[in-house]
Specification:
The protein has eleven helices and 15 strands. It is α/β, with parallel strands linked by helices and 312 residues long. Helices cover 36% and strands 24% of the residues.
């Protein structure tokens, strides 16, 4: 069964019927947001049942739209916490990603400023690698980007999308070896995005991110995961009551190949490893449960079928 990410938008009235239907057809609800009288459900549903869900949602005055960023966690990498780097382009892109279903995290580098000292430290590298994709927000100057990029990408295994002031063709020419995606004419600016051409540029960034993630999905499909990340999310909700007491946003963050659990590693890792999925197969049998470099959270990396010979 192939699960695809979609978003349901509708009224609060009778939305429980939509939730029950999604669960009945074997889907999973990743996040639920209630905004006044409206409800937004980010979910995974079987591909063959998407049109049926659309028709039911339409009869209730709701809408189902494709949302390729649902179930992804993306790092937005800024060169520093300084005002000329962080507030406007970084925050606008991170917020735009959240609106389209992704979980975005801001990563501001300790030594991203200046050609002479530009570098990643071990913690920054590890945090970025815990994400499905990294969006690097560079500056306006071609020579600066050309000089800094070899240091700022060293050790990064996650796909990278570069945004910078030079045009796309220039970014492709100066960055060697190439990265996974490029969006030009997006440098530093000292105002919020509010003009139509600026929103068009945000849409271009989303399109490039979606293209890179879809390419990654196609590659991963050749060696499928031993279990769906969304299924692990439901199992942890059922078996670890403490997760419902976590006040952080998205206590269980679904990724393309795993899950971030916002509980202390030392206290809950063993309990999570021993949760049975099916037929005596436990979470620890089909995944690596490791400490995250982000606070004291738990990071679950699901192993592919080639490593476990199991699909549950």
């Amino acid at each position: 069964m192939i699960l695809v990410p979609v978003t349901y938008n509708g009224g609060v009235y009778r939305h429980n019927e939509i939730m029950d239907f999604i669960e009945d057809i074997g889907g999973y609800i990743v996040q639920k947001h209630i905004l006044a009288s409206d409800v937004v459900l980010l979910c995974f549903v079987p591909k063959d049942d998407v049109e049926l869900l659309r028709s039911i949602a339409k009869s209730m005055g709701g809408e189902v739209v494709d949302s390729p960023l649902v179930g992804t966690e993306i790092a937005v990498v800024s060169m520093s916490l300084e005002i000329h780097h962080l507030p406007h382009p970084s925050c606008d892109i991170a917020e735009y990603l959240r609106r389209l279903g992704a979980k975005s995290n801001m990563v501001s580098l300790a030594r991203g400023v200046g050609k002479r000292i530009a570098a990643l430290n071990d913690e920054e590298r590890d945090v970025i690698n815990e994400h499905d994709l990294a969006v690097y927000l560079m500056g306006n100057f071609e020579k600066c980007i050309d000089y800094k990029m070899p240091n700022l990408r060293r050790g990064i295994e996650a796909p990278i999308v570069i945004c910078g002031g030079p045009n796309k063709e220039t970014l492709q020419r100066i960055i060697n070896p190439p990265v996974d995606g490029y969006v030009g004419n997006v440098g530093r600016f000292m105002h919020r995005t509010k003009e139509s051409e600026e929103f068009t540029k945000l849409d271009e960034i989303i399109s490039e991110i979606t293209r890179v993630l879809e390419k990654k999905r196609i590659g991963d499909a050749k060696d499928p995961l031993s279990v769906s990340p969304a299924r692990l999310m439901d199992l942890i909700k059922e078996n670890v009551p403490k997760i419902h007491q976590v006040t952080s946003p998205t206590p269980l963050t679904v990724q393309m190949a795993g899950l971030r659990v916002k509980l202390p590693y030392d206290t809950f890792a063993s309990e999570i490893r021993n949760i049975e999925i099916e037929d005596s197969v436990k979470i620890g049998d089909v995944s690596n449960v490791t400490p995250s470099r982000m606070r004291d959270y738990i990071l679950i990396r699901i192993l592919p079928f080639s490593d476990t010979n199991v699909v549950v």
